[in-house]
Structure formats: structure tokens, C-alpha cells
Amino acid sequence: MNYNRSEFQASYGLSSQLPESDRPEFVFSGRSNVGKSSLINRLCNRKNLARVSATPG
């Protein structure tokens, strides 16, 4: 897989709204401000793929 071509597609409020996919899915969970967004950006070699903020929430 080429992670350098990663891009934001959509945001869904309910799991029932998710489209069917034949690709692997990953979940990042944890407390506020522990680096989840920074990890996603680093893995994909992008600065602003996942929003990063100093303010929790």
C-alpha cells in the first residue's frame, strides 16, 4: 500500500452510514492529547491529514 497518497474522504456520525469496503480498516483510540493524530500524520507522511491541536477535544 502507498500511504503517501492518503487523503481524507468523509466523516460519519454512525457506523451504519459507513460504505462497504474491501480494504483494511484501522482504529486509533485513546485519551485526549496523547498523539493519535500526530501518529496518523507521521505514518502517512503528511502534516495535516489528521487535525492536531494543543486543546483537548
TrEMBL record:
GO terms for molecular function: GTP binding. One of its GO terms (cellular component) is cytosol. Residues 1-19 have a biased composition (Polar residues). Residues 26-57 form the G domain. Gene3D superfamilies: P-loop containing nucleotide triphosphate hydrolases (3.40.50.300). InterPro entries: GTP-bd, P-loop_NTPase. Residues 1-21 are annotated as: Disordered. This is Ribosome biogenesis GTP-binding protein YsxC. It comes from human gut metagenome. The lineage of its organism: unclassified sequences, metagenomes, organismal metagenomes.
